[in-house]
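Run log, item B.
One chain of 225 residues. Sequence copied directly from the ordering sheet:
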Amino acid sequence: MTPQPKIAPSMLASDFACLKDEAHRMVSCGADYLHMDIMDGHFVPNMTMGPPVVKSLRKHTDVFLDCHMMVSNPEQWVDDFAKSGASLYCFHAEATSDASSLIDAIHAAGMKAGMAVKPKTPISVVFDVAHKLDQVLVMTVEPGFGGQKFMAECIPKVKEIRDRFPDLDIQVDGGVGPDNVDVAAKAGANVIVAGTSVFGAKEGPEVAIRKLRESVLEHVTNKKA
């Protein structure tokens, strides 16, 4: 199946005091996913949200909730996030010693499974389990904080995984926006996470989301078709 563009505004860049309204605004502007950055203060030096927030948001939207689990013990939270209404549970390769069993548990709980790699982690860590994954996330910043500068040196990992797994959803997250998305899309990324560049876009989120989608359509979807 030809990879389709999926634009996922990062809710980390939203106004948490108005999370429901921010979610509705992003969906009305064309978002396919909402990217939920889950941080535990251990795997990364920051804390954000947990299952209660996801559960509360789920009551107000049917949109795909893409939960990026920046946590030290991802096995611990699978059932809680499934019950909260998470659509995809993306754990970090660096946080588990048994990715295959974790993927099975995620699927058994009714969620899609993703696996993320930090900038210094070789993409080869996903090869043995990629056939079981619904998505691979290539981080283009060090996880933990929004608003960081895009690390172009991570992009060859996107091409490497795309060449091996042409139908897989490949996500990039970190410093991505309309000004540099072509670099990621040309390498094969079809799922684009963007926080500051969408929520803070001078032309507005709808225009920013459209530009991100157009890049993926040009360089990934239509190119393969």
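Observations after the first pass:
- Helices lie at 19-28, 51-58, 78-84, 99-108, 155-164, 181-187, 196-199, 205-224.
- The mean pLDDT is 96.
Flagged for discussion on Thursday.
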